Amino acid sequence: MMTSLDGKIMGNYMGTPEGNAAGAAFKAIAFGENPYYKHQGWLSGRVTTDDNFTFYAEPELDETAGTVPEGDFVAETTGMYYVSIDPSGRLGWKRNSLTYAGTTAHVVEVLTGKASNAYKAFLRGLGISYIIAGEDALDYAVALAKLKELFGVETLMLGGGGVLNWSFIQAGMCDEVSIVVAAAADGSDNTPALFDAREGLSDDTPVGFDLQAAEVKDGGALWLRYLVKQAV
Ligand SMILES: NC(=O)c1ccc[n+]([C@@H]2O[C@H](COP(=O)([O-])OP(=O)(O)OC[C@H]3O[C@@H](n4cnc5c(N)ncnc54)[C@H](OP(=O)(O)O)[C@@H]3O)[C@@H](O)[C@H]2O)c1
Predict the structure, then answer these.
(1) Where are the domains of the chain?
(2) N or C end: fewer C-beta atoms under 10 angstroms in the chain?
(3) What does the pLDDT look like over 32-58, one tens digit per residue?
(4) So where does this one cross the membrane (predicted)?
């Protein structure tokens, strides 16, 4: 993740020279031809996907679609995946892949039992893979186990937003935090932070981190890597 000096993951600071320099460092670490992290995909919350890729479009559902087969749907195994946490099946996808910072990824939707038959039929029609993880709430362990078994994902990057990040950390499902801190801020009081507790998903129980490395990047940015300690 990239943040401002005050830990924000969105905002006007991103358009400053210091924000641009930090953004370039972030992309080189995580994406492109030779990234530091050799991951097989990245995980995003539903709001992050709507903001960046599906733009709050309504999915084109056919409520008369025939009943889809039970369980998961593997449309493609490509080696790079955009894993979308969308428990209720709300995202209005138009295609089954996306390209971000020079990296093309097949879309895998992580649904729960709350997603409708019509939504699953919609995903099948677009060739978008999906897995079912949990009935009423996301089952983290099931989601990660299925991503490994069905798609060969060994290393998965938590790609935000703050709600997704904090819920995975509190669930004990994140080993490492890696952030590029821009030498910029904008003081906004309505932008999301790197970690955001959300009622029903997470709370404000504190977590400690073990610093592994700190590196200065262009534009005064700092790349910080921490291991996650157990929640106290
Ligand atoms: N600077 C960066 O590096 C960076 C990176 C990524 C994102 N961002 C920005 O961050 C902003 C969005 O962040 P956000 O924190 O508001 O939202 P978010 O984490 O992207 O999405 C939150 C939603 O995802 C689903 N979700 C997340 N965790 C879940 C869990 N444990 N169990 C079940 N559902 C879960 C829920 O969807 P439902 O509401 O459908 O139930 C939840 O409301 C965007 O503006 C995005 O552009 C910045």
Answers:
(1) 1-36+170-232, 40-154
(2) C
(3) 788 999 999 999 999 999 999 999 999
(4) none
